[in-house]
Every structure is written in C-alpha cells, then in structure tokens.
Amino acid sequence: MVLIDNEHPYYQLTPDSILDAIQSVGIDAEASLLTLNSYENRVYRFHDYSQKWVVKFYRPNRWSDEQILEEHQFLRELLDAEIPVVVPISVSNSTLLTFKDYRFAIFPCVGGRDPQLENKEVLKRMGRLLARIHNVGALKPFHYRNQINVKVFGSDNVKFLADNSYIPEYLRDSYFVITGQLLDICQQQLPKKGDYQPIRIHGDCHPGNILWSDHGPTFVDLDDCIMGPEIQDLWMLLPPNSNEQPFLKEALLEGYQEFRTLDFKQWLWIEPLRTLRMIHYSAWLAKRWQDPAFKHHFPWFGEPQYWEQQILDLKEQLSIMMDKNSFGYFQ
C-alpha cells in the first residue's frame, strides 16, 4: 500500500471516490452521503435501495492491517456472544476492504441516542453489558494491538510534545514539570507488569460510543480497542460528579458483578488512567494538527489559553492523585 501524506491524508477522498469505493464491493449506493462525527477516521452514512449503511475509511498509516482485523474479529466474537455491537460486512472473505490507497469497512447502520448515565438503571444495564464484553475479551489476547501503560500513553506523548513546538515557550517548563511529576506517580500507582492480567477491552468507552434505543444500548466504534484493565472501560462511563453521587458508581458495579468479578484494587487506578488520557489527548491533537479537519473542529488548540488550562487541570489532577495516598500499593 502506498503511504499517504499524513498532513492531508484524506484530500483524495472526494464524494465521487467514496461512492466508487462503495460500488467496488458490489453495493449500489444512492448518490447521497451524510458525514458522521469522526475526526480520526472518515465516516459516512449512505443507503442503497433497501437499507442504510455506514462506511468507515481508516486513517492512513495509523493501524496495520493486522490491528484492524483484530478489531473486526473482536466485534465478531462479541456479536456471536449476543452482545449488541455492529460488525462490518465481509466481501470476498474479508471485512477490511481497499480502494486505491484507502482501507475501509462497511457496517449496517444503527440508530440511537446518548445513554442517560445519571440514571441508576441505565448504569446497571451498562455494567452488565461491559462485564459480558470483558468475559469475551478475557478469552484470548490481542497480538498486534497496544497495551495501556505509562510509556505508550504518557512518556512517549510527553516526549513528542517536548520535541515539537505546540506548547508556547513561556509555558513549556510548567507543563513538563507537572507532567513529569504526574508520570512518576502513575508509575507508582499503576500495576507493574505481571501484577494483573490485561484483557481485550473497548478502550474508548465514552458515552459518545454508545447508542441507546428502545431496545437498549449498542456499542460502536472499537477503533481504539486495546489490552488493558477492566476499570478503563468502567470509569469512562461515570459522570464527572460521580464522586459526589456514589450511588452511580454502586449501580454500575452492581450490574457488572452480576456477570464478572472486578478486583476492587482497580478502583485505585482510575486517576492514573485519567491522567494518561489527558496527556494522550493533547498529544493526539498535536499529532493531527496538520489535518485541516482538526484545525476546523479544534481551533482553540492553537491558542495559549488551551495550554494554560491544561496546566491548571493537570495541577488539580496531581492534587487528587496525591490525596489518594496509594503510593507503593503495587510494590
């Protein structure tokens, strides 16, 4: 496959080429495309003469073919276990399709709305489904996808930001001092290799990746599925004020433990995992900043105020993590 310019990876992906790609696998699409929210990939809804579909063009040079196929295989296993997920169709015995230099997949279209995660019954139901996802995820490992750790999601991202000029000069020292302190604590508070058994998880289980209908939830977009601890999927479903409303955490856990036992020490990993996600998010924006879509949707990233707020948020995170008083827990 020819490598595509990372700064403008989708410039050849015109409406005509998208329709040509769809037609190349035998689907006669009507000439109408609806762009769906996705910054990492390009995702469009279309319909043929019988039903609606979603086509997803993977960002070039991000995942290997093997990593994408592991995502698709995981989705198939989940569907076979009667878990509500959306699985790409297979064409000529492959779910990973190609057109020119692009790789894409086609999924049945499902509708839904955001789940009401401040509702105890909704959280309990989400807990049950996550437990079932994790039961399938624990059956075997990924061989090509990453594992959540401080290096990949923390220090590697900090190094990228240090090697580039996205952070204003007058804020660089403050940012790198606070992230250095946070990563030291993450190393202490997160488990060492061999201290727990990572499993296949959703990896990006925020409410926007769940569609709720009259039939209940459907999990979508496992693009970031990864090896990691179960708690990574759980904490992302808790509302920001969940510490002030412990019944929400209790409802999620109650549903989860109907189908799977959660090691309670994983609750101590939430704040380190949140910290890694905060750092990873800033680096993700920086790595994609030359993509015109990112400059359009995230114009504030190029402003000093963004980094000023990041430093304040990270300082608050440092205070929270130090208050946990869990240093050396996994030594």
Q: Would you mind describing this structure in some detail?
A:
- This protein is 42% helix and 11% strand.
- The model is unreliable at 325-331 (pLDDT under 50).
- The strands form three sheets. A five-stranded antiparallel sheet has the order 1-2-3-5-4, with helices on one face.
- Helix 4 runs antiparallel to helix 5 and helix 8 (270-287) runs antiparallel to helix 10.
- The protein is globular, with a radius of gyration of 21 Å.
- The protein has helices spanning 15-24, 65-80, 120-137, 150-163, 169-189, 231-235, 246-256, 270-287, 292-297, 304-324; strands at residues 34-35, 42-47, 52-57, 97-99, 102-108, 199-201, 210-213, 216-219, 226-228.
- By secondary structure, the protein is an alpha+beta fold.
- The N and C termini lie far apart (45 Å).
- The protein has two domains: 15-108, Phosphorylase Kinase, domain 1, CATH 3.30.200; 120-324, Transferase(Phosphotransferase), domain 1 (Orthogonal Bundle).
